[in-house]
Specification:
InterPro entries: AAA+_ATPase, ABC_transporter-like_ATP-bd, ABC_transporter-like_CS, P-loop_NTPase. The protein has 323 residues and is an alpha/beta fold. It has 2 domains: 238 residues, P-loop containing nucleotide triphosphate hydrolases (Rossmann fold, 3-Layer(aba) Sandwich); 72 residues, CBS-domain (Roll), CATH 3.10.580.10. It is built from 14 helices and 13 strands. The strands form 3 sheets. It has a 6-stranded mixed β-sheet with strand order 6-7-8-3-9-10, sandwiched between helices. Strands 2-1-4-5 form a 4-stranded antiparallel β-sheet, covered by helices on one side. A hairpin with a 2-residue loop joins strand 9 and strand 10. The termini are far apart. The structure holds adenosine-5'-triphosphate. The site of adenosine-5'-triphosphate has 11 residues, from helix 1.
């Protein structure tokens, strides 16, 4: 658990960058910090591992004030993934991943096994990747290594500062899925900074929307979308030109029985509730069925027949309403 109690951060000019921040992040939670540029997201993140010292208030991790931890102990227990791919260029993938285990004096065998396990967990073949240098990897692969490097020494908490913002949309989606799956498997607390509201809604168990060093709204994706607390939050959601997600339509289809909870065909494309409605329609135009997921949890399948039957019923209802 990470707790901020009345935390303030000021630089030399005395202007508070973060003012009286109160926040509790639960163990195992995927917590997203989002807000406009300069609102204090990175500052909030870096105060957790003491990369930036706070000016007033208390920050506790597992109930213990962060200043009472030995700095190495604190940092080793908190993985950190940055936007800029910060792999050491002269080191191999294996050496990059084992920087912290090396400092903790793990045995060679234990480190080698860990590297194999981690590379496999993000779909990279361990034997063909472990000896490569970072320049022999694509941007998406480098960022994957950045993520598993943060997991290497098995920290409880991972901080991620816009880790996927430099990636193309396909690599980004794939990495988002990997991170969600990894988090579920290894039950880490993840604090994730992003500018992208779609990414926040897709990944976050809870989202804090920040403005000028304060939290404007804190809630689940559903709470934030359904009950934006003020005009700023509404504008923030709206300003990103949010495409309509598939979730409301999928909910309707499930409620009205146009849905099948049995296993989808292995060839069926996957659709997540946070994906756009457009994507669902496009997939159904090409495939007979689509496998529906809520995050990484499989819900069931929707067929093109389900969707067309639903539309036919709606048109019928509309027709009779006009008679
Ligand atoms: N060393 C510093 N001295 C003075 N002000 C600083 C310093 N570092 C950051 N700031 C200011 O603190 C504010 C918050 O910065 P921070 O990097 O936390 O914002 P952010 O929300 O992460 O922004 P972005 O999304 O653009 O990365 C900004 O106005 C920034 O100019």
């Amino acid at each position: 658990m990470i707790q901020f109690e009345n935390v303030t951060k000021e630089y030399d000019n005395g202007q508070p960058i973060i003012s009286n921040l109160n926040l509790t992040i639960q163990e195992g939670e995927f917590f997203v910090l989002i807000g406009p540029s300069g609102c204090g997201k990175t500052t909030t993140l870096k105060m957790m591992n003491r990369l930036i010292p706070h000016t007033a208030g208390t920050i506790k991790i597992h109930g213990q004030e962060i200043h009472t931890y030995h700095l190495n102990e604190l940092r080793w227990n908190i993985g950190y993934v940055l936007q800029q791919i910060a792999l050491f260029p002269n080191m191999t993938v294996e050496e990059n991943i084992t920087v912290v285990p090396e400092m903790q004096k793990w045995s060679k065998d234990k480190m080698a096994n860990r590297v194999t396990e981690l590379l496999n967990s993000v779909g990279l073949d361990a034997e063909s990747y472990r000896h490569r240098k970072p320049q022999a990897l694509s941007g998406g692969e480098q960022q994957r290594i950045g993520v598993i490097r943060a997991l290497a020494a098995n920290p409880d908490i991972i901080l991620m500062d816009e880790p996927f913002s430099a990636l193309d949309p396909i690599s980004r989606k794939k990495l988002q899925q990997d991170v969600l799956r990894l988090q579920k498997e290894v039950k880490k607390t993840i604090v994730f900074v992003t500018h992208d509201i779609q990414e926040a809604l897709y990944l976050g168990d809870r989202i804090a929307i920040m403005r000028q060093g304060k939290i404007e709204q804190l809630g689940t994706p559903k709470e934030i979308c359904n009950q934006p607390k003020n005009d700023f939050v509404k504008e923030f959601l709206g300003s990103e030109n949010l495409p309509v997600t598939a979730q409301p339509m999928v909910t309707l289809l499930i409620e009205q029985g146009y849905f099948d909870a049995s296993e989808a065909l292995r060839t069926a494309p996957q659709l997540y509730l946070g994906d756009s409605l457009n994507e669902l329609i496009h997939l159904l135009a090409v495939h007979n069925q689509v496998a529906i997921y809520d995050k990484e949890c499989y819900l069931g399948l929707i067929t093109s027949k389900h969707y067309l039957s639903y539309l036919a019923k709606e048109l019928e209802k509309e027709g009779s309403a006009h008679e």
